[in-house]
Amino acid sequence: MMVMGLLLALSFVVSLLALAFLIWAISNRQIALDEQAAKVIFSAGEEGKLDSPDKEFADDRRHYFDIAASGIDRISGRPVAVLLIAATFWLVLGSVFGVIASLKLHWPDWLSAYAPLTFGRVRTLHLNLVIYGWLSQMGIASMIWILPRIFRTPLRSPQLTVVGAIIWNIAVALGALAIARGWTDGEEWLEIPWQLDMLLAFAGVFFIVPLIRTTSAREVHHIYVSGWYFLAGILWFPCLFVIANLPVIHSGVEEATVNWWFAHNVLGLWLTPIGVGTAYYFIPKIIGKPVYSYSVSLLGFWGLALFYSQVGIHHLIGGPVPTWVVTLSVVHSVMMFIPVIAVAINQHVLVGRNLWALKESLPLRFISFGAVMYTMASFQGSIEALRSVNTVVHFTHYTVGHAHLGAYAFVSIVMFGAAYHMLPRMTGRAFQWPALINAHFWLIVVGFAIYFFSLSIGGVLQGLAMLDATRPFSESVTVTLPYLEARSLGGTLMTLGHIIFAINVASILVPRRVSAIVSMEPAE
Amino acid sequence: MNRYLPLSILALAILAFATLLLVIAPGIQISRHAAPPGLKPYTEQELRGRDVYVSLGCVYCHSQQPRSPDQAPDGVRGWGRPAIAADYTYDAPHQLGTMRTGPDLLNVGARLPSRDWHLAHLYQPRAIFDWSIMPSYPFLFQRKDSAGPEDVAVSMPAAFAPESGVIVAKQDALDLVAYLLSLDRTYPAPANALRDDGYSQPVEP
Q1: Domain for residue A5, yes or no?
Q2: Residue A518 pLDDT more than 90?
Q3: Do A132 and A175 meet the contact criterion of CB atoms below 8 Å apart?
Q4: Which residue ranges of chain B lie beneath pLDDT 50?
């Protein structure tokens, strides 16, 4: 007991010392982070100019292309297109499974005749397809696009990424089939059988090697903040994924701590770096001005690494695990306020001072909305981890709402914006129906609002009913029904939005009449 | 932040530190607690039933970790005493769960010890509780004209019974129920048991 208490204290002291050191290092310029370095994302003449592909097509300013950047984009374009198409496919399929799972919670006898369509499997298919099929692939696509741009050098070994994408998608498809057939490792976020997980990990090597090779070949000295998140994420996630999936070595409650160490780090050290890194690049790039305070971004990054990596056991509050490790995760969950506020200052202040840009750029609308949702999701998560709050909302639909605020409203919506910004640059074409982009935005925003508020309210009512010993358990079920129905409505709107997204992606990737095509070849 | 190598070393060191605290240290502590004498290993049939439980994803609606009376009235609902780490010695994969769309099941075998009740409930939960939103599992059963000597027939109320013949449990259903009936951690917890005591009320001196 003493030893564990000491470990707990040690962790906290180390984190605080590291934070103090970081602040000292920044204030004494030990870590040279020149505010000018934040402008590394702009090529000559780009700063101060709106970067909005659709606007350029509308204004017929097609000569605006930066030739060096478009040469870089041309190399990245093919792997990004492959990943983006596959990711979009899994997004739509995963969303359909999500809606089916949602409907089943209030129509329990619907589609109950076959085991692959039972709630427990459809829900699992939804989660795994959107995490591994959609978000992870889309995140890799975003990295492949952004890293060569901030390093001002073309992607190295681009053909490897295409091979990786093929293997990755085979593994995701096989994983989905396995889950539908009932072959599962049986832990949340780790359901894909470990044999297939090894195939995913193998595919990951094909993504990581080109990105690291590109990093070492970079033409600029400084690594821009998006690069910190991406380059750390591609190291963190493979470690997490392989350790958590090793067969045989985990069992009992120890396995539960591994499970939640992994599952929360998928959010914290993989999906969050993807989303934050992407927003850190596109928000200033589109607006044409650097982030508010480049030094503060250091605090955001290292704070995330230190605190987020230790929050996982807040999923086991009140459970059969040592008190100290639960407390450790609760404390670090609250400490997450620090890095989140740091990121918020940088991104929201820049957008807030340039609200005009939201009117000019549809991609920016998605990305900055997603960035605000990161702040909201993290604040909510920190508060939700408090023991008093957790007693009410743990084991309820509230948690599902929170998970979607993070993985959906934050990361997925940032990814939508990134896709809408990359696609015209990749293809040299404008979107055929810009109004559909707007329709996509409003469908998912309204759909998500319905989704989130219904689950949050329903979840609290469910939790309060469960805590009241004078009310039968059945009340905690019946009280949620109208909210579960509302969630199905919200989820359906979001899925319609995703179908429109798929139409938009298809419409710009399929070549149209020749006159609309602008050659991406650099001028001779 | 101009070099990748220091960045990656520090980033991985931080993850290793987190792994030490969240995985390795609790793992060592948990492994020191042997199985309580009252906890029996699963039989072969119960393990097969556990596989069915895992493959159907029961964990997404049913937790297996009653909370302490200091935190929640789980005990009053008949879900059992607060769960301790050693209760799960024979569980792999763990099925602690994070959701209670349905009730906690760690002691369901002690709370609802009837095989026939569970079979009927799995075939059609709404035959027993009209408010239930649990899926029905008709694919774990088959309709026969008459039950054979080896068959376990499920008695259903007329409204839910087939028009003719009988409903017979498949092997998967029998195994699953055997597993559910084995869920019984009502033996007393050892004095030094390991669990999250973060809600316990301070004892007045």
Answers
A1: no
A2: no
A3: yes
A4: none
Strands of B19-123, DSSP E: none
CB B156 within 8 A of CB B120: yes
Residue (of B176, B58, B160) closest to A118 by Cα position: B58
Whether A59 shows a pLDDT value over 80: the answer reads no
Answer whether B71 sits within 8 Å of A318, measured CB to CB.
yes
pTM, rounded to two decimals: 0.93
Kindly list the residues from chain B whose CB atom is less than 8 angstroms away from the CB atom of residue A481.
133
Is cis: bond before A424, omega within 30 of 0?
no
Residue A68 has pLDDT above 80, yes or no: no
CA gap A187, B60 in Å, rounded: 10
CB contact under 8 Å between A185 and B93, yes or no, is yes
Which residues of B are less than 8 Å from A246 in CB distance? none
- Give me the residue spans of the domains in chain B: 1-32, 33-182
Inter-chain residue contact A188 with B98, CB threshold 8 Å: yes
Helices B171-182, B44-55: inter-axial angle, 10-degree rounding: 100
Residues of A in contact with B12 (CB under 8 A): 235-236, 239
Q: How does pLDDT run across A343-361, given as a tens digit for each residue?
A: 999 999 999 999 999 999 9
Q: Judge: A123–B60 Cβ closer than 8 Å, yes or no.
A: yes
* Alpha-carbon span A327 to A386, nearest angstrom: 9
CATH of the domain at A90: 1.20.210.10
CATH fourth-level superfamily of B33-182: Cytochrome c-like domain (1.10.760.10)
Domain that holds residue A460: 71-516
